[in-house]
From TrEMBL:
Protein name as catalogued: Acyltransferase-like protein
Major localisation: membrane
Record-annotated membrane-spanning stretches: 21-38, 58-81, 101-122, 134-156, 168-190, 196-214, 226-243, 263-280, 292-314, 326-349
Keyword Transmembrane carried by entry: yes
Keyword Acyltransferase in record: yes
Keywords, ordered alphabetically: Acyltransferase, Cell membrane, Membrane, Transferase, Transmembrane, Transmembrane helix
GO terms under cellular component: plasma membrane
Domain of life: Bacteria
Membrane topology qualifier: Multi-pass membrane protein
Organism: Pseudaminobacter salicylatoxidans
Domain Acyltransferase, chain residue ranges per copy: 24-343
GO biological process assignments: enterobacterial common antigen biosynthetic process
Record lineage: Bacteria, Pseudomonadati, Pseudomonadota, Alphaproteobacteria, Hyphomicrobiales
């Protein structure tokens, strides 16, 4: 069943400069997101401490940049799914995403489970093993009601749910966009207890991306919106830094106020990241992001496993959060994760089975591809894996 008749491909093709900037943004967002998952090694709330220089740096990289970077990934995902709906229709889209989102979700969590079992046998520490019951294993592998073993992969789980809802969202955004967006806001506020998504907020950003693609504003209009949001970002950063310096715990805020502040930060951060991609587009940093972009999906899926076990070794040498040397762990692990992702994907590149399980079925791009051209595996984080989705 098609959600609508397919329009002429040329009328909905993403401009090359937008596609190039998406490639930059995707790797940059995933790299910054990794800082959230560097484990501090202490039980106490790291934000409930007097704010020294490193405490502020940690807060900026983990709470401001790291957590909020997911918002732009969600917008990009919604933006690209529209073309897949127009081309393939709802049923084929859902089947495709089951292969390219759910399969890696389960495969990486099974790998994490195996590694935890081996670690438990060696060390006698079984603390991180899931409850051995039907629901416990379902949560560990599929993140039905709690986080999966490979925690960041909740995003793949929620992204698949977004894809399932995308035909209804597409119809709503075409006919009554304002009412549909208000409905997504309501779901964000009241949807936690429904257990449909781990983070209902993600569907709002996904829908926003779909709305942008349906409305088809030109690049200059998008850049003007991003510029305005970047001004708002400066205000939100100032608010959040004040909260951190004054040791106001977000977890103890009124839930509605906390969600409002978090959403405003994520919306403005998405605009800020997009504005940044335009500013650095011709820089050495942008070229590096484009070269590493083919490894982004593998990096996204694998980094938390590395952090879980590598962090044990690093914290033994450099201490936990609060140690003068913890900064070495904090900044080294994301860089090491990039190196391991590059090596890991190259190692499994010759096996179709391993690529299917761990990289959405796609290998490395051919050398003849344009440097900035997105690879199908990476576009799993933007929901589109076919040329028409560009």
């Amino acid at each position: 069943m098609k959600t609508s008749s397919a329009p002429p491909p040329s009328s909905h093709r993403v401009p090359p400069d937008v596609s190039e900037r998406v490639s930059i943004a995707r790797f940059l967002c995933i790299f910054l997101m990794m800082f959230v998952h560097v484990q501090p090694g202490i039980a106490e709330n790291v934000y409930d401490r007097d704010a020294g220089a490193f405490d502020i740096v940690y807060f900026i990289f983990s709470r401001l940049l790291g957590l909020s970077s997911v918002s732009l990934l969600s917008i990009v995902s919604g933006y690209f799914v529209v073309a897949s709906l127009r081309k393939a229709g709802a049923w084929r889209l859902v089947k495709s995403k089951a292969r390219t989102l759910v399969v890696p979700l389960v495969a990486w969590n099974l790998l994490m489970l195996a590694l935890l079992a081996v670690y438990g046998l060696i060390s006698g520490n079984w603390h991180d093993m899931p409850e051995f019951s039907m629901m416990g294993m379902a949560n560990a592998l599929f993140a039905l009601t709690t986080w999966p073993l490979d925690v960041p992969l909740w995003f793949l789980r929620d992204l698949f749910v977004c894809c399932v809802f995308s035909p209804a969202l597409y119809a709503g955004l075409k006919r009554v966009p304002v009412i549909t967006m208000l409905g997504l806001v309501a779901f964000m506020v009241f949807g936690d207890d429904l257990l449909i998504m781990q983070r209902p907020q993600l569907l709002l950003f996904f829908g926003l991306g779909m709305w942008l693609r349906i409305a088809e504003p030109d690049t200059r209009t998008i850049d003007r919106m991003a510029g305005a949001l970047t001004v708002g970002l400066a205000i939100m950063v100032a608010i959040f830094l004040t909260i951190r310096i004054e040791r106001i715990l977000l977890s103890e805020m009124n839930p509605t106020l906390r969600l409002t502040l978090d959403t405003l930060l994520r919306v403005t951060m998405a605009g800020g990241f997009w504005f940044l991609t335009g500013a650095i587009r011709h820089s050495a940093l942008a070229r590096l992001c484009r070269r590493l972009e083919p490894y982004a999906f593998f990096l996204f899926c694998s980094h938390a496993i590395l952090f879980n076990f590598g962090g044990i070794i690093f914290r033994r040498f450099f201490g936990n959060y609060g140690s003068d040397l913890f900064a070495i762990t904090f900044f080294s692990l994301p860089v090491i994760a990039v190196v391991c992702a590059v090596l890991g994907l190259r190692i499994i590149a010759g096996s179709r089975v391993l690529l299917f399980l761990f990289n959405a079925g796609h290998g490395l791009p051919q050398p003849a591809q344009a440097e900035w051209k997105q690879t199908p595996a990476t576009r799993q984080l933007a929901v589109s894996r076919t040329p028409e989705g560009r």
